[in-house]
Amino acid sequence: MINKKSAWFLTLFSLILVLSVYYITMPPELLVAQPNKIENADSEPVVNIEESSILVALRVEADEELDNEINKLKKIVSNADSTIEEKNEAFEKIKNLNNNRSLEEALEKLIKNEYKLNSFVKIKENNIEVIVNSNEHNVELANQIMRIIQAEFNTSKNISVKFQK
C-alpha cells in the first residue's frame, strides 16, 4: 500500500520529469535570452518600456513594510491572549491596509492608462504621494494627475506629485 509520503514523492518526481523532458525538447531559439523587443504582425519592432529602478525599489520597500505590518497584525489576531477588541481592531487595520494597496494599484493603472507614464502611489491616511517616471517636470501634467486622483475620492486629499527618472 502506498502511503502519503510515497504518493507525494511520486507526484513531484513525475512533475519534475515531465518539465525536464519539456525543456529538453524545446527548440534552442526559445531558450536564448531575447532583447526587450516584440515584433508585431507588420514586423515593426515595438520596444517595451522598462520601469525605473527607483519605482521598483519604492514598490519593493512599500511591499516589505506592508507585509511586516500585516504579519504583526496577524499575530495579534491569532494570539489567544488578545482581547476581542484588539483582534477586531487588528483585523480592521489589515482590511484597511489591503484596501489601500489595491487602491494604490488602481491609481497607478489609471495614470498609466491616461498619461502612458509609470508611477508609484503611496497612500498614508489623507496623504497621497505620487512619483512619476518622467524626465519632464511639467506643472500642468502634475495638476492633471492630482485632479484625476482626487476625482476617485469623495473627501479632499493632500496629493503630491514628484517627477523622477
TL;DR of this structure?
This protein is of the alpha+beta class. Helices cover 58% and strands 16% of the residues.
Account of the 3D structure:
By secondary structure, the chain is an alpha+beta fold. 58% of the residues lie in helices and 16% in strands. The chain is built from five helices and five strands. The chain has a three-stranded mixed sheet, with helices on both faces. A two-stranded antiparallel sheet has the order 1-2. Helix 5 links the parallel strand 4 and strand 5. Helix 3 runs antiparallel to helix 4. It is flat. 9% of the residues are buried. The mean pLDDT is 84.
| Order of SSEs | HHEEHHEEHE
Q: Note the overall shape.
A: flat
- Mind describing the biggest β-sheet? 3 strands, mixed
User: How far is the N terminus from the C terminus?
Assistant: 62 Å
By DSSP, the count of extended strands is: 5
Strand order of the largest sheet: 3-4-5
- Quaternary structure annotation: single chain
Percentage beta strand: 15-25%
Low-pLDDT ranges: none
Mean pLDDT: 84
Write a concise keyword list for the protein shown above:
5 helices; 5 strands; alpha+beta; 165 residues; flat
